[in-house]
Write a structure and sequence with these properties.
It contains 26 helices and eleven strands. It is α/β, with parallel strands linked by helices and 640 residues long. Strands 2-3-4-1-5-6-8 form a seven-stranded mixed β-sheet, sandwiched between helices. It has a two-stranded antiparallel sheet with strand order 7-9. Strand 3 and strand 4 (64-69) form a beta hairpin. It is globular. Residues 1-12, 44-49, 185-189 and 561-566 have low confidence and may be disordered.
Length: 640
């Protein structure tokens, strides 16, 4: 098929844009992956930090189509940043971006009553709509029978059954997309930045009318409502049991951190050997001088020190994607609701806190779902205490250097994984403790209950898991190749100039700008056991946590112990640091002041410099205090 654009004037000069819209847990992302495969990219919407996924595919007619996966929403009556983005995209409110040419509204065929209201709201916009009845295989297995023709007649839009996890399950949707685009007229396309059809937010009266219309449509099109999933009920009876649920959740998390070390060991060794071979080859091929130092000591030693942790990042996100795709993640929120309620947190705070395990930025953004301002501020202030994935390289490096690779409890538990689990648990407990204090002092108020949908359990799609991991790997490597790469070049320059004077007895880096900075900060950090090399690494670490690891790699490569770096950075640290220093740095990073991007989002979300400064001060104080206690207590226990 040729890569063409339809001759319809509505598409002149650009491929048609289709938006996937639907409730959370409707299989929308699986449908997006089925249509686009790996031909997708992730970016932020203009002016906000909410991510959007864009991909391309060829329709049966040979048309190149752009597909946008919009955040899940229950209504255009937006109450969260994700829902606001979906509303603004379909209404064409973003500057320089017209509304979608066609909207594919994805609905869970097993739960039409919940999904049809959004279809009715989208119809009011007057834009071409296709209703994709997803998960039809699950619906049929439960005895649920939907008359697609009757549903199409009642709604006045094309209805296509789909099974997103099967290769042949989207053929009918592709055919309907071609028909809908050919039938379009250019008069339907409003200009970018304008609202569609004089839309106004649905009132409470409108919502009641939608509910009544949904019941009428279901009476005409739903032949048999089927039965609830027996497997889901039986599994929930066990996993949501008060005596079993929480211990099982903690067991899952514990096994996840064990796997982070056990599964990633072999690929990490392979990457380490490849980097060593590249560094040795570059060092042998280039003559001594600035270029050789920049390449081997700056770029390879710095960026390579971070890239080596890619396998562990992927193992962590493999478990997160598995928990999300099976439906267990929502159960985790339910199980932890009572625990969070004990410290005064709003039930909806779990989602922002859970998002913060990946990155605090989307976690803080997700706090917009909490309507009460005091509860929202309390959640924002503690979200960065959850251990984000950027801390993982720091934890892994220090654990690999100072924690023996052996098992305990009769060989059943890896000691390194146990320490990693303890660090994550420390972050969670510190967040809960901070919430307890904040909710009883600054942010007093009654707690509201948690209301959320528990989707049916599903078998995860290997294709979707693989695409998710590829996207995470792409983001991680892009960051290593841009932000970390740039910082490492700057750090190499600061660590190489000015050159050491004639007759200098110490390493050259001592006389450089970076060395001067490190030695200037050393007295301030000496009470918590930090060396001047650590002081240097903490400064660029403000841009991104994992940069601290890359900075240590470059600093030690430029120092007199640089020759040892041909083995591993962990080996260099084990020889240069004391155990109390290593434990102190781990304690520091449990509470460490946040990266610049997190702080900027806090400022924007609270619309105040005050709360951003409060976060800097209280987290710095916690980090310094925890490191101080850890260093001196461990020094005393270890005999100095």
């Amino acid at each position: 098929m040729s890569d063409t654009v339809l001759s319809n004037p509505a598409f002149t000069g650009a491929p048609p844009r289709i938006a996937l819209v639907g409730n959370p847990n409707c299989g929308k992302t699986a449908l997006f992956n089925a249509l686009t495969g790996a031909r997708q990219k992730v970016a932020n919407y203009p002016g906000v930090t909410v991510e959007r996924k864009i991909g391309e595919f060829l329709s049966p007619a040979g048309t190149r189509v752009q597909l946008v996966d919009l955040p899940g929403t229950y209504s255009l009556r937006a109450r969260s940043p994700d829902e606001e983005v979906t509303r603004d995209v379909v209404l064409g409110r973003f500057q320089h971006e017209a509304p979608p040419d066609v909207m594919v509204c994805v609905a869970d065929a097993t739960n039409l009553r919940l999904h049809l209201r959004l279809v009715l709201e989208l119809k009011k916009l007057g834009r071409p709509i296709i209703l994709a009845l997803n998960m039809m295989d699950v619906a049929e297995a439960r005895g649920c029978r939907v008359d697609a023709a009757a549903l199409s007649a009642a709604l006045g839009v094309p209805v296509v059954p789909t099974v997103a996890i099967k290769r042949t399950g989207v053929v009918g949707l592709l055919d309907q997309i071609d028909r809908s685009m050919v039938a379009m007229t250019p008069t339907l396309a409003p200009s970018p930045g304008t609202s569609s059809c004089g839309w106004s937010e649905p009132s409470a009266l409108d919502l009641r009318a939608y509910h009544q219309e949904v019941e009428t449509i279901l009476a005409a099109a739903l032949r048999d409502a089927g039965r609830p999933s027996l497997a889901t009920r039986r599994i929930d009876a066990a996993l949501l049991h008060p005596a079993i649920g929480l211990p099982f959740l903690f067991l899952v998390l514990f096994l996840m951190f064990q796997a982070v070390f056990a599964w990633a060991a072999v690929p990490m060794d392979m990457i380490d050997k490849c980097l060593g071979w590249i560094q040795s080859g570059a060092g042998a091929a280039l003559p001594d001088g600035l270029l050789k130092s920049l390449l081997t000591d700056g770029i390879i030693a710095g960026v390579g020190s971070v890239v080596i942790f890619l396998p562990q990042i992927l193992v962590l996100f493999f478990f997160i994607l598995m928990l999300e795709s099976t439906g267990y993640m929502a159960r985790a929120a339910f199980l932890l609701d009572r625990l969070m309620g004990g410290v005064g947190l709003h039930g909806r705070a779990f989602i922002p806190l859970l998002s913060s395990f990946a990155c605090a930025v989307p976690g803080i953004m997700a706090a917009r779902t909490i309507e009460n301002r005091a509860d929202r501020l309390a959640t924002i202030m503690i979200a960065p205490l959850m251990t984000c994935s950027a801390r993982l390289p720091v934890y892994t490096l220090i654990i690999a250097a100072f924690v023996p690779d052996r098992t305990v409890a009769g060989g059943m538990i890896g000691l390194q994984g146990l320490v990693m689990f303890t660090l994550y648990a420390a972050g969670i407990l510190s967040a809960l403790a901070a919430a307890f204090v904040l909710k009883r002092t600054i942010f007093k108020g009654a707690r509201e209950p948690l209301l959320m949908e528990l989707p049916s359990y599903r078998l995860p799609s290997p294709r979707d898991i693989l695409l998710g991991l590829l996207e995470r790997a792409r983001i991680f490597l892009a960051r290593a190749g841009t932000v970390i790469f740039s910082i490492m070049i700057l750090l190499w320059f600061l660590g190489s100039f000015p050159a050491a004077p004639d007759g200098a007895t110490g390493p050259a880096i001592d006389y450089s700008f970076a060395g001067m900075l490190g030695h200037a900060l050393a007295p301030l950090l000496a009470p918590i056991g930090f060396t001047w090399q650590i002081a240097i690494a903490l400064v660029p670490g403000m841009a991104a946590r994992e940069v601290a690891v890359a900075a240590l790699g470059t600093v030690y490569a430029l120092s007199e112990t640089g020759d040892a770096l041909s083995g591993s950075l962990a080996g260099v640290l084990a020889a240069d640091w004391s155990l109390p220093t290593a434990l102190s740095l781990l304690a520091w990073f449990v509470f460490a002041p946040q990266c610049v991007s997190t702080l900027s989002v806090v400022k924007r979300e609270t619309n105040s410099w005050f709360w951003m400064l409060v976060m800097i001060v209280y987290m710095t104080a916690l980090a310094y205090g925890a490191a101080f206690v850890t260093f001196h207590l461990s020094s005393a226990l270890l005999g100095g």
